[in-house]
Amino acid sequence: MDLSNIQPIPNEPALFIEDKKILVIADLHIGIESELKERGVNAESQTRKMTDHLIRLCKKCKPDEIVLLGDIKHNIPISTNIERRDVRNFLNDIKDLGVVHIVPGNHDGNIKWLLPEDMSIHRSDGFIVDNVGFVHGHRWPCEDVMMCDQIIIGHTHPTIMLTDRLMYKTFEPCWIRGNFLKEKLKEKYPESKNPEILVVPAFSPLCGGIAANKDGINGPIGKIMDIENLQVYLLDGSSLGLVKDINV
């Protein structure tokens, strides 16, 4: 696979791999509205909106395959009846848009019982297409994934914290590119060639995120990443430079 074909879709929290016709999204968190309601936030269901959003992206990109990079559902360990219904509806609505690959995340317990019959699920430590590894990011990737030249992860819902001259802080969803700290990488994966990591922003508009320039990258893989030298891009493609140069 030509890694130059792995490009974020402008102004979208989605990735398209042109030469393989693969569309990638992460972190839908269907059912998060019930948790927000318990916290006093009345948020309407986003499932239909996210379904329509993905359908529009598929009409635009015409993918042969779709990778759902984990955390399709939200509530753990027990899902609400509404969440189970919405997850089933979402998966049934997209199953004919292309071959759907599911990489389970930490919120996806028992999701196999919600899948359409013709939809399969990969191991949670990742799978590979050519020389690109796909993993959610809540657990260590398998050795084979770490031998790839490119790894695509979700889980952390990357944002960047920006501070204006009045010290007002805003958090913007973003794309993160970077590599591992070589010494730490070799301790965990001696045979790895230090692949590039691409962190995908959350597809859900409700689940918030982790500010890379404040809290780094969430999950075990973040412990061995070169956080200071991560490259940050806003969804519109604007480059903000390196994490270490973006003031908190």
Question: What would your notes on this structure say?
Answer:
The chain contains six helices and 15 strands. Helices cover 21% and strands 25% of the residues. It is an alpha/beta fold. The model has no long low-confidence stretch (mean pLDDT 93). The strands form two sheets. Strands 7, 8, 9, 10, 11, 12, 13, 14 and 15 form a nine-stranded mixed β-sheet that branches. A six-stranded mixed β-sheet has the order 1-2-3-4-5-6, with helices on one face. It has a single domain, classed as Purple Acid Phosphatase, chain A, domain 2, CATH 3.60.21.
Feature tags:
6 helices; nine-stranded mixed β-sheet; 248 residues; 15 strands; six-stranded mixed β-sheet
Give the topology, please.
Blueprint: E1 6-8, E2 15-17, E3 22-25, H1 32-38, H2 47-61, E4 65-68, H3 81-94, E5 99-102, E6 120-121, E7 127-129, E8 132-135, H4 143-146, E9 150-153, E10 158-163, E11 169-178, H5 182-188, E12 196-199, E13 210-211, H6 212-215, E14 231-234, E15 239-242
Parallel strand pairs: 3-4, 4-5, 5-6, 8-9, 9-12, 10-13
Antiparallel strand pairs: 1-2, 2-3, 7-8, 10-11, 11-12, 11-14, 14-15
Helix pairs in contact: 2-3
